[in-house]
Amino acid sequence: MTQKLMMLLTVGVVVFLSACQQPLVKKVATKHEASKYFNDPVITHKVDSVLSMMTLDEKIGQLTLYSSGWDKTGPSMNENYINDIKAGRCGNIFNAFSPDYNRKLQKIAMEQTRMKIPLLFGYDVIHGQKTIFPIPLGEAASWDLKSIQKTASAAAAEAAAAGIQWTYAPMCDIARDPRWGRVSEGAGEDPYLGSKIAAARVHGFQGTDLASDTTVVACVKHFAAYGAPEAGRDYNTVDMSERKLRDVYLPPYKAAVDAGAGTVMTSFNDLNGVPATASHFLMTDILRKEWGFNGFVVTDYTAINELVPHGIAKDDKDAAALAMNAGVDMDMQGGTYSKYLKELLKEGRVTQEEIDNAVRRVLRIKFRLGLFADPYKYFSNKREKKLTYSKYHMALARQMARESMVLLKNDKETLPLKKGQRIALIGPLADSQRDLLGSWHAAGDWKINKTVKEAMVEQFGKSNIRYAKGCDLRGDNRSGFASAVAVARRSDVVVMVLGESAEWSGEAASRAHINLPHIQSELLEAIHKTGKPVVVVLMSGRPLALDKEVPMTDAMLEAWFPGTEGAPALADVLSGKYNPSGKLPMTFPRITGQIPIYYSAKNTGRPYTKTGKEQKYRSRYLFTPNTPEFAFGHGLSYTTFSYSAPKLSTVRLQMGDTLHVSATITNTGNYDGTEVAQLYIRDMVGSVTRPVKELKGFRRIFLKKGESKTVTFDLTMNDLSFYRKDMTWGTEPGDFKVFVGGASDNVKEAAFTLVK
Ligand code: BGC
């Protein structure tokens, strides 16, 4: 080493160390704070001092993320990526989630690399780390932002103790096609609800102090419009107008970014001809320039390499150039930056500035996480032990699961089950342990959770439960039907647990038909014929098409995949210990052929209404109604609620003012209960066509039997705004309708005019 280089290095190390000793600015909560924080001169100074000492290879290493060799057989310390860490070629690891193992890897980075830049550890902590909460679609059905934030922060605390600082969540993809298996990971079909939930989850994961050892940095995914693949087939083409993209699909990602999310993941799909991972429009124009996002962008798994089969890059090298030029900072698993960025720089196809900026963004997050100050603080067996399955987390899991369940139907007050009733418990999911956790259950161990059968025995007493499986989830084996029918005959009421296996939703799990497999439907028919009251509990990762089954049931409860405490929570709901309050975050069609079906549709020039003379030339199907089986926002309670007509603070709203909309809700039934009051609007005449209803507010309210409460919603100009004909965002004067009610198809209305 030359003397000059030695001197430079010494100066560099001194600058670096002194920079690291300065106190970190820790708080990042609101959007204003977030942007202020990113421009924080202390962090910028630290980042620049580190950057100034790095070689090109080391810089590229920070832009590289590899999966650890961790699998079911345990971690391996002989993998290639270990050598990459040692050589500074890999600065980030995912899929490693043990305090000891992660510490070992961190030690390599801290002790054996020249720059001693701490590794960043990522993992898919989607709905819990070990204590597993309901799948995100289930959590969304609670419409309970506080609880959703709490489960995200509990998940973060468990993950952070296990050595993770970065979760690949929340998934903010709006989805209106339940064939797509990943609807289970999102918040459903609606941009307003989706945005609120996205922000709640970011706040939950990140807390107010990213450097705390109980928080992790969030990753908003999959940017963008991954939830709109043609025909609901995962990874398929996405093609839509920019208006639809901005009106419907972008808001939840934006809400997550505004909530301070530190990272964003590109999506696998192409959007209007350009794969997201090569999209300058998405990653730079929208994300950074329009939204002011200052964190880093990571690809989805090998998404750069996939630009080749997409047919917009000739080879991986070409693909790496496209991604870097688009504004993608980190390559997940594909190794393309590692292999080609140096050459591409030499050839002038990427710039030093692009690389440096990408590294800056990554380092900034590492500083914010406090990794430079203490690279080891996230690896704590003690904390992991204390938090995992803790009393608080288990209670939270049970409460969230109760809140997530949606009572779809309840004729003749079949539910709650009555004391002393003899209950037949039937169905392929009634004694399944594994399925309760759903897909993406991180480090969750299904062996510790109770099955529905076990929880029912505990809740109702062994002598009251008679179990028969009846059939498998799929197939043609009817040999269990007879004993199931016999068990039903010997009981007062039948509870059937039907639906999907956990593996039928999540990634790469699209279904062309979203009905119950025929064997389950046939079993239901056989039980229905006994004449006993039938309660169907559904476990599924998506809305199902149940037009055949609904008439064969007396009650139906959607339980999703409810997580570690899901089975006891279900027993709580069936027994009436908890009065269900969930509302659907996604429409349930009658049949698959109605898809895409969503409440916020356009009216068309030939709307179909059932009233009046039957008309042929209307927007309708010949043999199927337009309406869904269960609408967005639908969900019953054991009690009933009545709504007054909405009262408005004015019927002539001045541009710039806020409208106050109030309605009185009364609990008219026989139980105390929680209702989710929903507020929708319709802009009657616009410069472009507007949806027949748009959710603009909701409130969970607890009402004692006979009690009334008045809820007031504020409708602001922002709520009345949309992308107008010229693609500017704003309001247009004219007539509006306002609706308040307990479901998108069960509302009372009022009208007002927006005047200049
Ligand atoms: C998924 C992402 C996930 C990533 C890392 C990909 O296949 O699409 O959602 O975060 O894998 O596990």
Walkthrough of the structure:
This protein is an alpha/beta fold. It folds into three domains: 3-382, Glycoside hydrolase, family 3, N-terminal domain (TIM Barrel, Alpha-Beta Barrel), CATH 3.20.20; 400-594, Glycoside hydrolase family 3 C-terminal domain (Rossmann fold); 641-755, Immunoglobulin-like. It is 32% helix and 17% strand. It contains 22 helices and 27 strands. A six-stranded mixed beta sheet has the order 11-16-15-14-12-13, sandwiched between helices. Strands 4-3-2-1-10 form a five-stranded parallel beta sheet. The longest helix is centred in the first third of the chain and has 19 residues, at 3-21. It starts with a helix and ends with a strand. Residues 1-37 have low confidence and may be disordered. The structure holds beta-D-glucopyranose. Beta-D-glucopyranose is lined by residues 124, 168, 221, 300-301, 507. Residues 124, 168, 221, 300-301, 507 line the site of beta-D-glucopyranose.
